[in-house]
Amino acid sequence: MLFSTAAPVSNRHGFKAGAQENLKARLTEAKKRDWLGEIEGLNISQAGTEQKLMGMASVQESSRDGDIRFSHLSESPTA
Fold first, then answer.
1. Measured over all CA atoms, what is the biggest interatomic distance in the chain, rounded to whole angstroms?
2. CA nearest 49: which of 9, 8, 72, 17?
3. Domain ranges of the chain
4. Which distant-in-sequence residues (6+ apart) come within 8 Å of 23 by Cβ?
């Protein structure tokens, strides 16, 4: 039996909006203060967040279609 560990859609949407707004605010402040290292790090974080959210959306779509793949679980341990 499989149980969904994903948050309800309304919570995921709130997380997505909150994460993106937080990163944008931090990036705006870093640009105003000319914190070049912080700008670079936040740009990397923003790109990673966008990729993660796209992956979450893809999993959600697959689960609706009944096409959930757990290929990483099928690998046997080497121990």
1. 52
2. 17
3. 22-57
4. 42, 45, 46, 49
The counts of H helices and E strands in the chain are 2, 0
Q: What's the pTM? A: 0.54
Rg (CA), the chain: 17
pLDDT at 50: 84
* Dist CA 46 CA 31 (whole Å): 15
Of 53, 75, 70, the residue nearest 7 (C-alpha): 53
* pLDDT per position as a tens digit, 2-58: 444 555 555 666 777 788 889 899 999 999 999 999 999 999 998 988 888 888 878
